[in-house]
Write a structure and sequence with these properties.
Number of strands: 0
Distance between the termini: 57 Å
Radius of gyration: 14 Å
Largest sheet: none
Shape: globular
Number of helices: 3
Order of helices and strands: HHH
Amino acid sequence: MAKKIAHSKNFEKVKNYYDNGLWSKERVYNMVTHPASAPWITAEEYEEITGEPKVLPLSRTFLI
């Protein structure tokens, strides 16, 4: 018997938007990082939806 995976409450919504071409990978990526206090989906769900791992952006802090 297959184990059922629990997803975020917005997973199906985001997956549907992406699968139907309404949202780009960038938009789906934003759902992992925004809002910062309560992202819509997890990084693992991003990978499940797009087939690509979520890569964290480089720090924008520069040493002078």
